[in-house]
Amino acid sequence: xxxxxxxxxxxxxxxxxxxxxxxxxxxxxxxxxxxxxxxxxxxxxxxxxxxxxxxxxxxxxxxxxxxxxxxxxxxxxxxxxxxxxxxxxxxxxxxxxxxxxxxxxxxxxxxxxxxxxxxxxxxxxxxxxxxxxxxxxxxxxxxxxxxxxxxxxxxxxxxxxxxxxxxxxxxxxxxxxxxxxxxxxxxxxxxxxxxxxxxxxxxxxxxxxxxxxxxxxxxxxxxxxxxxxxxxxxxxxxxxxxxxxxxxxxxxxxxxxxxxxxxxxxxxxxxxxxxxxxxxxxxxxxx
Length: 287
Ligand SMILES: NC(=O)c1ccc[n+]([C@@H]2O[C@H](COP(=O)([O-])OP(=O)(O)OC[C@H]3O[C@@H](n4cnc5c(N)ncnc54)[C@H](OP(=O)(O)O)[C@@H]3O)[C@@H](O)[C@H]2O)c1
Fold this sequence. Notes:
With 287 residues, the protein is an alpha/beta fold.
């Protein structure tokens, strides 16, 4: 199958990141072989950015897919693929960051990740081998986050060449400011929930001013997912504009997300999209 080159953004580390990536959350989680085969298909159709995390349990099958993609010649070298992974909340501690990244790299079978993110600005008690899962999070499992110490350890991961870029996820302006106050290396990316019904404009302006790329998860509003809503896929304005251009809402939504329209968009259409009001019901970012 002929694959299309996905547009890229240049991060503040000088690294190029494909703006569209394949999310690897799956619930229920299929067996590793099935996931590896799905990721190989994604390579085949042109995906070059994959988004995983310790908590998703998809690092191992993704690593196997990278190895297989190299074997099959879908990519010629490791640096043709961009791998993002994330530090889970029970490892958000100065002393646990480096060991957690080393574990991630072992699972991926790689020498470095392209981007390593603090998954949430939340710290959970570390109970040893098994990470506390999302549905086990309760106030008694939480402990205060040491942003300064955790970020220092993230910077060390970068200096050691184990993470080409470092960043955060689900951070609001206040917590980002706390990092920036003490950082030697500023975050390259803040990955947050971002879509036409949850545009996060203030956060977007703040990130732009500080050279941080704002990257969006659940661009379709996590349609049909447990934590999601139909605020994007069933939005009457998006439906009307998409249909008038013979596109579907998902195609149009992705064009908005990467600000690259493969069809004409009038100023009025752009304003109407900008004006889509917020009907959000999910977790949002933490301030
Ligand atoms: N950093 C974080 O804290 C965080 C949090 C959540 C997610 N993420 C990342 O973001 C990724 C994406 O999240 P998401 O899956 O919620 O994203 P999403 O793109 O908002 O939603 C995907 C949903 O949209 C449906 N869909 C996809 N293409 C469609 C189309 N063309 N027409 C109609 N429906 C369509 C899918 O349904 P079907 O399954 O039925 O196709 C799926 O349920 C995750 O895998 C993860 O990597 C990060």
